[in-house]
Amino acid sequence: MKxxxxxxxxxxxxxxxxxxxxxxxxxxxxxxNIEKMCGYWDVVYYAVDASxxxxxxxxxxxxxxxxxxxxxxxQMWLDDQQTYWAYQFLVDIDYNNRTFNASExxxxxxxxxxxxxxxxxxxxxxxxxxxxxxxxxxxxxxSFSDDEYPAKNGFDHYxxxxxxxxxxxx
Length: 170
Fold this sequence. Notes:
The protein is mostly beta strands. It has 2 helices and 8 strands, in the order αβββββββαβ. The protein has one domain (35-164): Lipocalin, CATH 2.40.128. It has an 8-stranded antiparallel beta barrel with strand order 1-2-3-4-5-6-7-8.
């Protein structure tokens, strides 16, 4: 009899264990409201003159674009993770057209200088990674108020272009 009671008790505990771990939720996992504009980008900075002519490949870098904590659809963060000019600031976006820009605004929390972003665009599937596979691309023009390189080197601003990091070894 003792054997049957312990077997029934064990069966009850196991059944409770399985039902106790059952998570019931109606939430569907998903991305942010601007997920198609967010990403990790491998970019190149080009020196551009006032007429829009590319004069030189200036530097390589990495940037991140990501949503604000309010998950809104009017602004996103543009952040180079201190790989080039140490900027991190909000840009205005038009999510439907995948465009972005920023009038003159502080590019870091310390107020080091101002940045202007124009002609920002994310093109879905328009880039190619090193293996030739399609991936998203990004392009924008940027200038910094405290940047002495353009005046010293005969250019006006930077054109930044690149592709979304795919996560594969490139």
